[in-house]
Amino acid sequence: MKNKIIFLCTLLALAFLILAGCQQKRSAVITDSREPAPAAKDYLRQLPPGELALRKITDPAQIPDYTKACSDLDGLQEAIARSLSYLAKPSSKRFYPYGDITHEHAVKSLQELQKLVAAKLSPGQMNSILREKYDTYISVGCDDQGTVLYTGYYTPIFNGSLLRTERYKYPLYKTPADLVKGPEGSILGQKSKNGQIRQYTSREDIQKSNMLAGLELIWLADPFEVYIVHVQGSAKIRLHDGRIEAIGYDAHNGWEYKSIRHKLIADGKFTEKNINMKAMIEYFKAHPAEVDTYVGQNPRFVFFRPEPGEPRGSLNEPVTPSRTIATDKTIYPRAMFAFAAVDLDKPVGFVLDQDTGGAIRAAGRCDLYLGIGERAGELAGKTYREGQLYYLFIKPETGPITGKAQGN
């Protein structure tokens, strides 16, 4: 990304966003700021019970102009197909209706969108159709005015080994047999020998007890790299013979994610303006003995599984760089088509809601997946900006969309 000014809020309630996306799957990354911080906003403000994040726009003047987004559709068809693949699974019907949007309506919205993208219309024609044939909903955001904080996440690539060696001695673990999940993947706790379920052991106690011995999935050379994988939720591990082993999120220990950011700042390791992931990586490479002290502040511990192929989101479908977003799935519609109205260095535009995040638990938060490797990590580290988030559903009365826009 080219350099642009990035907002950084000083609100302590955002401390847990240090690397933070999607964990259940990922979390986002906070970068530095070269401007005074804006007025504090509670991006984590929770909605009243039962309230959804979207509000239908009834004034056409408030519908965004999508023309610029319509000029860049790379990867969009692929992302739409992945959402339709998810909606074809019977289990997806459990999460609809979303408000007045039925499962059938959601599927039709994406099917017609797929045809529209394939028609290769001019940006102006496509914009007209989207504005005329689709209903637009806006996220209420953190302030009921539509303000959404965008952050980024990615899949790191690290060197590693399938066996412990003198160099590779920091493990990522498989899920233990005594961890109990609910029917939809929620973490219920730890099953004791007498069959009772209690809260699972915290990160610090897991690491002190060596209770996971024998469940090592893969080994890394750097303890802070292990923590980055815990936060990002997936990784590509390069073995000594050049092969790549892909791993992905499987479960966590049920504890709430807590950022290490505030502690690092309080201890004078960083300032509010210079703390970012790259700086932390460099710091902990120079001070490896301090890693346990700081990562122990976060009680959440993540377990992994082999995940051949592309990284997957919480819908168990591959995520698409710059097209997949992670949101709070208790208040946002799974798999649906959205418009990210945010001024980032690399324009975003149209996205699909295909992932979740442990740090993404409110209407005022959205995490954008930016790809694999170091460059994607740099982009993620620069993504911290306010914007708006819109969702589009085809109007119920609309028939099949043709390749011509009305009025063009």
At a glance:
This protein has 408 residues and is an alpha+beta fold.
Topology, element by element:
Blueprint: E1 54-56, H1 67-70, H2 76-87, H3 103-118, H4 123-133, E2 134-139, E3 148-155, E4 157-161, E5 170-173, E6 179-181, E7 187-191, E8 197-198, H5 203-209, E9 216-220, H6 223-232, E10 234-238, E11 244-252, H7 261-266, H8 277-286, H9 291-295, E12 302-306, E13 324-326, E14 337-342, E15 349-355, E16 365-372, H10 374-381, E17 384-394
Parallel strand pairs: 3-16, 4-10, 13-15
Antiparallel strand pairs: 1-2, 2-17, 3-17, 4-9, 5-9, 6-7, 7-8, 10-11, 11-12, 13-16, 14-15, 14-17
Can you put this structure into words, describing what you see?
43% of the residues are buried. The longest helix is centred in the first third of the chain and has 16 residues, at 103-118. The protein has a domain at 12-153 and 312-394: RlpA-like domain (Barwin-like endoglucanases). It is globular, with a radius of gyration of 21 Å. The strands form three sheets. Strands 3-16-13-15-14-17 form a six-stranded mixed barrel. A hairpin with a 5-residue loop joins strand 7 (187-191) and strand 8 (197-198). The chain is 22% helix and 23% strand. The chain is of the alpha+beta class. The protein has helices at 67-70, 76-87, 103-118, 123-133, 203-209, 223-232, 261-266, 277-286, 291-295, 374-381, and strands spanning 54-56, 134-139, 148-155, 157-161, 170-173, 179-181, 187-191, 197-198, 216-220, 234-238, 244-252, 302-306, 324-326, 337-342, 349-355, 365-372, 384-394.
